[in-house]
TrEMBL record:
PANTHER family assigned: RIKEN CDNA 6720489N17 GENE-RELATED, ZNF44 PROTEIN
Alphabetical list of SMART domains matching this protein: ZnF_C2H2
Key words of the record: DNA-binding, Metal-binding, Nucleus, Repeat, Transcription, Transcription regulation, Zinc, Zinc-finger
Protein name (database record): C2H2-type domain-containing protein
Family: Belongs to the krueppel C2H2-type zinc-finger protein family.
Chief site of localization: nucleus
Sample GO molecular function, one term: zinc ion binding
InterPro entries given in the database record: Znf_C2H2-type (IPR050758), Znf_C2H2_sf (IPR036236), Znf_C2H2_type (IPR013087)
Lineage: Eukaryota, Metazoa, Chordata, Craniata, Vertebrata
Chain ranges of the C2H2-type domain: 10-37, 38-65, 69-96, 97-124, 125-152, 153-180, 181-208, 209-236, 238-265, 266-293, 294-321, 322-349, 350-377, 378-405, 406-433
Amino acid sequence: MRTHSEEKPYQCPDCGKSFREKGTLNIHKQSHTAEKPYQCAECGKCFSYTASFRRHKKTHSAGSALKSYECPECGKSFGRKDYLITHRRIHTGEKPYMCSICGKSFNHGATLVTHKRTHTGEKPYECSECEKSFKQISGLITHRRTHTGEKPYECPDCGKRFILKAYLDVHKRIHTGERPYQCSHCGKGFSCSSYLLRHEKTHTGERSHTCSDCGQSFYWKRSLIMHMRKHTGEQNLHECKICSKGFSWMSALNIHMRTHTGEKPYMCSECGKTFSGKWILIQHKRIHTGERPYKCPECGKSFHAKSSLFAHKRTHTGEKPHECAECGKSYSVKANFVAHMRTHTGEKPYECSDCGKSFYKKDRLMTHKRTHTGEKPYQCSECGKGFNWKVGLINHTRIHTGEKPYSCAECGKCFHKKDHLARHEIIHTGEKPYSCFDWGKL
Protein backbone atom coordinates (compact mmCIF):
# COMPACT_ATOMS: atom_id res chain seq x y z
CA MET A 1 0.00 0.00 0.00
CA ARG A 2 2.95 2.38 0.54
CA THR A 3 3.52 2.54 -3.23
CA HIS A 4 0.21 4.40 -3.46
CA SER A 5 0.46 6.44 -0.25
CA GLU A 6 4.08 7.61 -0.96
CA GLU A 7 4.83 6.86 2.72
CA LYS A 8 8.59 6.33 3.32
CA PRO A 9 9.07 5.56 7.01
CA TYR A 10 12.68 4.28 6.83
CA GLN A 11 15.18 7.14 6.87
CA CYS A 12 18.94 6.95 6.35
CA PRO A 13 20.75 8.42 9.42
CA ASP A 14 23.71 9.50 7.25
CA CYS A 15 22.07 11.48 4.42
CA GLY A 16 18.37 11.69 5.40
CA LYS A 17 17.11 9.85 2.31
CA SER A 18 13.87 7.90 2.97
CA PHE A 19 12.70 4.50 1.78
CA ARG A 20 9.46 2.48 1.75
CA GLU A 21 11.13 -0.79 2.72
CA LYS A 22 13.64 -1.53 5.48
CA GLY A 23 15.57 -3.89 3.17
CA THR A 24 16.03 -1.08 0.63
CA LEU A 25 17.38 1.17 3.40
CA ASN A 26 19.88 -1.52 4.45
CA ILE A 27 21.12 -1.84 0.86
CA HIS A 28 21.38 1.98 0.55
CA LYS A 29 23.43 2.26 3.76
CA GLN A 30 26.16 0.22 2.08
CA SER A 31 26.76 3.20 -0.23
CA HIS A 32 28.03 5.18 2.78
CA THR A 33 30.29 2.48 4.15
CA ALA A 34 31.58 1.51 0.66
CA GLU A 35 30.80 -2.10 1.67
CA LYS A 36 30.63 -4.43 -1.33
CA PRO A 37 29.65 -7.86 -0.04
CA TYR A 38 28.94 -9.47 -3.42
CA GLN A 39 32.13 -10.66 -5.14
CA CYS A 40 32.40 -12.15 -8.62
CA ALA A 41 34.15 -15.54 -8.57
CA GLU A 42 35.32 -15.04 -12.17
CA CYS A 43 37.13 -11.69 -11.97
CA GLY A 44 37.02 -10.66 -8.28
CA LYS A 45 34.99 -7.49 -8.89
CA CYS A 46 32.77 -6.50 -5.93
CA PHE A 47 29.29 -5.01 -5.80
CA SER A 48 27.05 -3.34 -3.22
CA TYR A 49 23.78 -4.59 -4.67
CA THR A 50 22.62 -8.08 -5.71
CA ALA A 51 20.97 -6.68 -8.86
CA SER A 52 24.25 -5.15 -10.03
CA PHE A 53 26.06 -8.36 -9.14
CA ARG A 54 23.62 -10.48 -11.19
CA ARG A 55 23.89 -8.22 -14.22
CA HIS A 56 27.69 -8.37 -14.04
CA LYS A 57 27.73 -12.19 -13.88
CA LYS A 58 25.88 -12.32 -17.18
CA THR A 59 28.83 -10.62 -18.87
CA HIS A 60 30.89 -13.76 -18.13
CA SER A 61 28.23 -16.33 -19.01
CA ALA A 62 26.81 -14.72 -22.15
CA GLY A 63 29.91 -12.83 -23.34
CA SER A 64 29.52 -10.11 -25.93
CA ALA A 65 26.14 -11.50 -27.06
CA LEU A 66 24.60 -9.91 -23.95
CA LYS A 67 25.31 -6.42 -25.31
CA SER A 68 22.34 -6.36 -27.64
CA TYR A 69 21.76 -2.60 -27.55
CA GLU A 70 24.00 -0.95 -30.12
CA CYS A 71 24.53 2.79 -30.68
CA PRO A 72 23.75 3.64 -34.33
CA GLU A 73 26.16 6.60 -34.17
CA CYS A 74 29.41 4.93 -33.07
CA GLY A 75 28.61 1.20 -32.89
CA LYS A 76 29.27 0.87 -29.16
CA SER A 77 27.17 -1.86 -27.52
CA PHE A 78 25.46 -2.00 -24.13
CA GLY A 79 23.83 -4.69 -22.01
CA ARG A 80 20.92 -2.47 -20.95
CA LYS A 81 18.63 -0.17 -22.89
CA ASP A 82 18.87 2.66 -20.33
CA TYR A 83 22.68 2.62 -20.68
CA LEU A 84 22.28 3.12 -24.43
CA ILE A 85 19.78 5.97 -23.92
CA THR A 86 22.22 7.75 -21.59
CA HIS A 87 25.13 7.14 -23.96
CA ARG A 88 23.30 8.59 -27.00
CA ARG A 89 23.08 11.95 -25.23
CA ILE A 90 26.84 12.29 -25.87
CA HIS A 91 26.02 12.43 -29.60
CA THR A 92 22.82 14.54 -29.38
CA GLY A 93 24.16 16.94 -26.76
CA GLU A 94 20.97 16.51 -24.76
CA LYS A 95 21.29 17.41 -21.08
CA PRO A 96 17.84 16.97 -19.53
CA TYR A 97 18.90 17.23 -15.89
CA MET A 98 19.28 20.87 -14.81
CA CYS A 99 20.57 22.19 -11.49
CA SER A 100 17.91 24.43 -9.89
CA ILE A 101 20.59 26.48 -8.13
CA CYS A 102 23.06 27.43 -10.89
CA GLY A 103 21.30 26.28 -14.06
CA LYS A 104 24.07 23.88 -15.15
CA SER A 105 22.77 20.88 -17.10
CA PHE A 106 23.83 17.23 -17.19
CA ASN A 107 23.12 14.19 -19.37
CA HIS A 108 22.72 11.84 -16.42
CA GLY A 109 20.59 12.13 -13.27
CA ALA A 110 23.28 10.69 -11.02
CA THR A 111 25.74 13.36 -12.22
CA LEU A 112 23.24 16.07 -11.23
CA VAL A 113 22.84 14.57 -7.74
CA THR A 114 26.62 14.61 -7.28
CA HIS A 115 26.88 18.17 -8.65
CA LYS A 116 24.25 19.54 -6.23
CA ARG A 117 26.53 18.50 -3.37
CA THR A 118 28.98 21.24 -4.48
CA HIS A 119 26.26 23.73 -3.45
CA THR A 120 25.13 22.01 -0.25
CA GLY A 121 28.62 20.95 0.82
CA GLU A 122 27.26 17.47 1.53
CA LYS A 123 29.87 14.70 1.61
CA PRO A 124 27.97 11.55 2.60
CA TYR A 125 30.75 9.03 1.98
CA GLU A 126 33.16 8.88 4.93
CA CYS A 127 36.40 6.92 5.20
CA SER A 128 36.39 4.61 8.24
CA GLU A 129 40.20 4.93 8.54
CA CYS A 130 40.74 8.70 8.64
CA GLU A 131 37.18 10.14 8.62
CA LYS A 132 37.78 12.08 5.38
CA SER A 133 34.52 12.59 3.47
CA PHE A 134 33.66 12.58 -0.23
CA LYS A 135 30.81 13.70 -2.49
CA GLN A 136 30.95 10.52 -4.56
CA ILE A 137 31.38 6.89 -3.59
CA SER A 138 33.96 6.53 -6.36
CA GLY A 139 36.05 9.17 -4.58
CA LEU A 140 35.87 7.15 -1.34
CA ILE A 141 36.77 3.88 -3.10
CA THR A 142 39.80 5.53 -4.74
CA HIS A 143 40.83 7.21 -1.46
CA ARG A 144 40.70 3.93 0.48
CA ARG A 145 43.45 2.62 -1.77
CA THR A 146 45.81 5.17 -0.15
CA HIS A 147 45.34 3.19 3.09
CA THR A 148 45.43 -0.32 1.60
CA GLY A 149 48.21 0.48 -0.89
CA GLU A 150 46.18 -1.13 -3.68
CA LYS A 151 47.15 0.00 -7.19
CA PRO A 152 45.11 -2.14 -9.60
CA TYR A 153 46.09 -0.40 -12.85
CA GLU A 154 49.51 -1.40 -14.23
CA CYS A 155 51.45 0.18 -17.12
CA PRO A 156 52.29 -2.53 -19.69
CA ASP A 157 55.47 -0.66 -20.72
CA CYS A 158 57.25 -0.02 -17.42
CA GLY A 159 55.21 -1.86 -14.79
CA LYS A 160 54.34 1.26 -12.78
CA ARG A 161 51.00 0.95 -10.98
CA PHE A 162 48.25 3.47 -10.27
CA ILE A 163 45.16 3.73 -8.06
CA LEU A 164 43.07 5.22 -10.90
CA LYS A 165 42.70 4.19 -14.53
CA ALA A 166 42.70 7.87 -15.52
CA TYR A 167 46.19 8.23 -13.97
CA LEU A 168 47.39 5.24 -15.96
CA ASP A 169 45.99 6.72 -19.20
CA VAL A 170 47.88 9.98 -18.62
CA HIS A 171 51.06 8.10 -17.63
CA LYS A 172 51.04 5.99 -20.81
CA ARG A 173 51.42 9.19 -22.83
CA ILE A 174 54.97 9.48 -21.39
CA HIS A 175 55.83 6.36 -23.42
CA THR A 176 53.87 7.32 -26.55
CA GLY A 177 54.85 11.01 -26.45
CA GLU A 178 51.20 11.92 -27.06
CA ARG A 179 50.21 15.45 -25.97
CA PRO A 180 46.61 15.89 -27.13
CA TYR A 181 45.87 19.08 -25.18
CA GLN A 182 47.37 22.15 -26.88
CA CYS A 183 47.57 25.74 -25.61
CA SER A 184 45.77 28.15 -27.94
CA HIS A 185 48.15 30.96 -26.88
CA CYS A 186 51.60 29.46 -27.42
CA GLY A 187 50.95 26.05 -28.98
CA LYS A 188 52.56 24.09 -26.14
CA GLY A 189 51.16 20.56 -25.79
CA PHE A 190 50.19 18.68 -22.62
CA SER A 191 49.40 15.06 -21.80
CA CYS A 192 46.58 15.96 -19.40
CA SER A 193 43.74 18.50 -19.67
CA SER A 194 44.33 19.74 -16.10
CA TYR A 195 47.96 20.55 -16.99
CA LEU A 196 46.70 22.66 -19.90
CA LEU A 197 44.18 24.51 -17.71
CA ARG A 198 46.92 25.34 -15.19
CA HIS A 199 49.29 26.46 -17.95
CA GLU A 200 46.72 28.74 -19.60
CA LYS A 201 46.47 30.76 -16.39
CA THR A 202 50.09 31.86 -16.91
CA HIS A 203 48.85 33.64 -20.07
CA THR A 204 45.63 35.10 -18.63
CA GLY A 205 47.14 35.98 -15.24
CA GLU A 206 44.06 34.48 -13.57
CA ARG A 207 44.58 33.64 -9.90
CA SER A 208 41.22 32.18 -8.95
CA HIS A 209 42.28 30.58 -5.66
CA THR A 210 42.46 33.16 -2.83
CA CYS A 211 43.53 32.66 0.77
CA SER A 212 40.70 33.67 3.16
CA ASP A 213 43.23 34.56 5.90
CA CYS A 214 45.66 36.90 4.12
CA GLY A 215 44.14 37.50 0.68
CA GLN A 216 47.07 36.06 -1.32
CA SER A 217 45.96 34.57 -4.63
CA PHE A 218 47.26 31.54 -6.52
CA TYR A 219 46.98 30.03 -9.98
CA TRP A 220 46.36 26.55 -8.65
CA LYS A 221 44.27 25.05 -5.85
CA ARG A 222 47.20 22.85 -4.80
CA SER A 223 49.34 25.97 -4.18
CA LEU A 224 46.56 27.50 -2.05
CA ILE A 225 46.21 24.30 0.03
CA MET A 226 49.98 24.28 0.66
CA HIS A 227 49.92 28.01 1.56
CA MET A 228 46.97 27.56 3.97
CA ARG A 229 49.05 25.12 6.00
CA LYS A 230 51.29 28.06 6.98
CA HIS A 231 48.29 29.55 8.79
CA THR A 232 47.06 26.30 10.33
CA GLY A 233 50.54 25.09 11.33
CA GLU A 234 50.17 21.88 9.30
CA GLN A 235 53.20 22.48 7.07
CA ASN A 236 55.01 19.22 7.77
CA LEU A 237 52.30 16.55 7.80
CA HIS A 238 54.49 13.87 6.24
CA GLU A 239 57.77 13.06 8.01
CA CYS A 240 60.73 11.12 6.65
CA LYS A 241 61.40 8.13 8.94
CA ILE A 242 65.12 8.23 8.14
CA CYS A 243 66.06 11.90 8.69
CA SER A 244 62.83 13.32 10.26
CA LYS A 245 62.48 16.01 7.59
CA GLY A 246 58.86 17.11 7.15
CA PHE A 247 56.88 17.73 3.97
CA SER A 248 53.50 19.24 3.14
CA TRP A 249 52.77 16.65 0.45
CA MET A 250 53.13 12.87 0.39
CA SER A 251 54.42 13.14 -3.19
CA ALA A 252 57.22 15.46 -1.99
CA LEU A 253 58.15 12.92 0.70
CA ASN A 254 58.26 10.13 -1.91
CA ILE A 255 60.67 12.17 -4.05
CA HIS A 256 62.77 13.00 -0.96
CA MET A 257 63.03 9.30 -0.03
CA ARG A 258 64.94 8.78 -3.28
CA THR A 259 67.81 10.83 -1.81
CA HIS A 260 68.20 7.99 0.72
CA THR A 261 67.58 5.08 -1.66
CA GLY A 262 69.54 6.61 -4.55
CA GLU A 263 66.66 5.86 -6.93
CA LYS A 264 66.61 8.05 -10.05
CA PRO A 265 63.82 6.79 -12.32
CA TYR A 266 63.71 9.75 -14.73
CA MET A 267 66.31 9.64 -17.52
CA CYS A 268 67.23 12.38 -20.00
CA SER A 269 66.91 11.05 -23.57
CA GLU A 270 69.62 13.49 -24.74
CA CYS A 271 72.52 12.72 -22.42
CA GLY A 272 71.37 9.76 -20.32
CA LYS A 273 71.58 11.61 -17.00
CA THR A 274 69.07 10.39 -14.43
CA PHE A 275 67.01 12.29 -11.84
CA SER A 276 64.94 11.55 -8.75
CA GLY A 277 62.01 13.78 -9.76
CA LYS A 278 60.10 14.43 -12.97
CA TRP A 279 60.28 18.23 -12.63
CA ILE A 280 64.06 18.08 -12.13
CA LEU A 281 64.28 16.25 -15.47
CA ILE A 282 62.04 18.84 -17.15
CA GLN A 283 64.28 21.66 -15.90
CA HIS A 284 67.41 19.76 -16.96
CA LYS A 285 66.12 19.22 -20.51
CA ARG A 286 65.96 23.00 -20.93
CA ILE A 287 69.78 22.96 -20.87
CA HIS A 288 69.62 21.00 -24.14
CA THR A 289 66.74 22.96 -25.71
CA GLY A 290 67.98 26.35 -24.51
CA GLU A 291 64.48 27.15 -23.25
CA ARG A 292 64.37 29.80 -20.51
CA PRO A 293 60.68 30.47 -19.85
CA TYR A 294 61.08 32.50 -16.64
CA LYS A 295 61.96 36.15 -17.38
CA CYS A 296 62.92 38.86 -14.89
CA PRO A 297 60.63 41.91 -15.33
CA GLU A 298 63.39 44.21 -14.01
CA CYS A 299 66.35 43.41 -16.30
CA GLY A 300 64.96 40.94 -18.83
CA LYS A 301 67.31 38.11 -17.84
CA SER A 302 65.77 34.67 -18.40
CA PHE A 303 66.07 31.43 -16.44
CA HIS A 304 65.28 27.77 -17.02
CA ALA A 305 63.86 27.26 -13.50
CA LYS A 306 61.30 29.33 -11.58
CA SER A 307 63.32 29.02 -8.36
CA SER A 308 66.33 30.56 -10.14
CA LEU A 309 64.20 33.56 -11.14
CA PHE A 310 63.01 34.04 -7.53
CA ALA A 311 66.61 33.93 -6.28
CA HIS A 312 67.72 36.37 -9.01
CA LYS A 313 64.95 38.90 -8.23
CA ARG A 314 66.43 39.29 -4.76
CA THR A 315 69.54 40.80 -6.37
CA HIS A 316 67.28 43.71 -7.34
CA THR A 317 65.39 43.98 -4.04
CA GLY A 318 68.43 43.25 -1.85
CA GLU A 319 66.31 40.81 0.15
CA LYS A 320 68.26 38.19 2.09
CA PRO A 321 65.68 36.36 4.19
CA HIS A 322 67.92 33.53 5.36
CA GLU A 323 70.07 34.70 8.30
CA CYS A 324 72.65 32.63 10.16
CA ALA A 325 72.01 32.60 13.92
CA GLU A 326 75.73 31.93 14.56
CA CYS A 327 77.41 34.80 12.70
CA GLY A 328 74.56 36.96 11.37
CA LYS A 329 75.46 36.46 7.70
CA SER A 330 72.42 36.57 5.41
CA TYR A 331 71.62 34.81 2.14
CA SER A 332 69.08 35.32 -0.61
CA VAL A 333 69.00 31.60 -1.51
CA LYS A 334 68.09 28.93 1.06
CA ALA A 335 70.48 26.35 -0.46
CA ASN A 336 73.42 28.71 0.05
CA PHE A 337 72.29 29.34 3.63
CA VAL A 338 72.10 25.57 4.35
CA ALA A 339 75.59 25.10 2.87
CA HIS A 340 76.94 28.01 4.97
CA MET A 341 75.54 26.48 8.19
CA ARG A 342 77.78 23.46 7.57
CA THR A 343 80.83 25.69 7.99
CA HIS A 344 79.75 26.08 11.63
CA THR A 345 78.68 22.47 12.24
CA GLY A 346 81.61 20.99 10.32
CA GLU A 347 79.23 18.71 8.46
CA LYS A 348 80.53 17.52 5.07
CA PRO A 349 77.92 15.11 3.70
CA TYR A 350 79.30 14.83 0.16
CA GLU A 351 82.15 12.31 -0.02
CA CYS A 352 84.36 11.50 -3.00
CA SER A 353 84.12 7.79 -3.84
CA ASP A 354 87.68 7.85 -5.28
CA CYS A 355 89.74 9.39 -2.46
CA GLY A 356 87.32 9.76 0.47
CA LYS A 357 87.62 13.56 0.66
CA SER A 358 84.41 15.22 1.91
CA PHE A 359 82.72 18.51 1.01
CA TYR A 360 79.94 20.65 2.46
CA LYS A 361 78.43 21.45 -0.95
CA LYS A 362 77.47 19.01 -3.71
CA ASP A 363 78.85 21.24 -6.50
CA ARG A 364 82.24 21.32 -4.73
CA LEU A 365 82.30 17.51 -4.83
CA MET A 366 81.39 17.48 -8.53
CA THR A 367 84.18 19.96 -9.27
CA HIS A 368 86.65 17.92 -7.18
CA LYS A 369 85.79 14.66 -8.98
CA ARG A 370 87.02 16.24 -12.21
CA THR A 371 90.55 16.16 -10.74
CA HIS A 372 90.25 12.36 -10.92
CA THR A 373 88.58 12.16 -14.34
CA GLY A 374 90.65 14.98 -15.89
CA GLU A 375 87.44 16.51 -17.26
CA LYS A 376 87.65 20.25 -18.02
CA PRO A 377 84.26 21.25 -19.43
CA TYR A 378 84.79 25.02 -19.25
CA GLN A 379 86.97 26.22 -22.14
CA CYS A 380 88.29 29.71 -22.88
CA SER A 381 87.09 30.96 -26.28
CA GLU A 382 90.22 33.13 -26.62
CA CYS A 383 93.09 30.69 -26.00
CA GLY A 384 91.39 27.29 -25.65
CA LYS A 385 92.55 26.67 -22.08
CA GLY A 386 90.22 24.34 -20.14
CA PHE A 387 89.04 24.51 -16.53
CA ASN A 388 87.28 22.03 -14.28
CA TRP A 389 84.95 24.63 -12.79
CA LYS A 390 83.13 27.71 -14.08
CA VAL A 391 84.66 30.21 -11.62
CA GLY A 392 88.14 29.25 -12.83
CA LEU A 393 87.14 30.15 -16.41
CA ILE A 394 85.56 33.47 -15.31
CA ASN A 395 88.75 34.46 -13.45
CA HIS A 396 90.89 33.40 -16.41
CA THR A 397 88.94 35.41 -19.02
CA ARG A 398 89.72 38.58 -17.07
CA ILE A 399 93.35 38.14 -18.14
CA HIS A 400 92.17 38.65 -21.74
CA THR A 401 89.65 41.41 -21.01
CA GLY A 402 91.84 43.24 -18.46
CA GLU A 403 88.91 43.41 -16.05
CA LYS A 404 89.90 43.80 -12.38
CA PRO A 405 86.69 44.00 -10.35
CA TYR A 406 88.23 43.61 -6.88
CA SER A 407 89.53 46.91 -5.53
CA CYS A 408 91.55 47.57 -2.34
CA ALA A 409 89.72 50.03 -0.05
CA GLU A 410 93.07 51.33 1.31
CA CYS A 411 95.13 52.10 -1.81
CA GLY A 412 92.74 51.53 -4.72
CA LYS A 413 94.82 48.79 -6.36
CA CYS A 414 92.68 46.40 -8.41
CA PHE A 415 92.82 42.65 -8.90
CA HIS A 416 91.10 40.16 -11.19
CA LYS A 417 90.70 37.50 -8.46
CA LYS A 418 89.17 37.88 -5.00
CA ASP A 419 91.86 35.79 -3.26
CA HIS A 420 94.57 38.02 -4.81
CA LEU A 421 92.91 41.03 -3.17
CA ALA A 422 92.75 39.19 0.18
CA ARG A 423 96.50 38.46 0.04
CA HIS A 424 97.25 42.09 -0.87
CA GLU A 425 95.16 43.52 2.02
CA ILE A 426 97.52 41.80 4.52
CA ILE A 427 100.16 44.40 3.54
CA HIS A 428 97.98 47.14 5.03
CA THR A 429 96.90 45.27 8.17
CA GLY A 430 100.39 43.98 8.99
CA GLU A 431 98.94 40.53 9.61
CA LYS A 432 101.35 37.60 9.16
CA PRO A 433 99.16 34.50 9.12
CA TYR A 434 101.77 32.01 7.88
CA SER A 435 104.15 30.51 10.45
CA CYS A 436 107.41 28.62 9.79
CA PHE A 437 107.21 25.30 11.63
CA ASP A 438 111.02 24.93 11.81
CA TRP A 439 111.77 28.26 13.46
CA GLY A 440 108.39 29.37 14.80
CA LYS A 441 109.06 32.61 12.99
CA LEU A 442 106.28 34.69 11.42
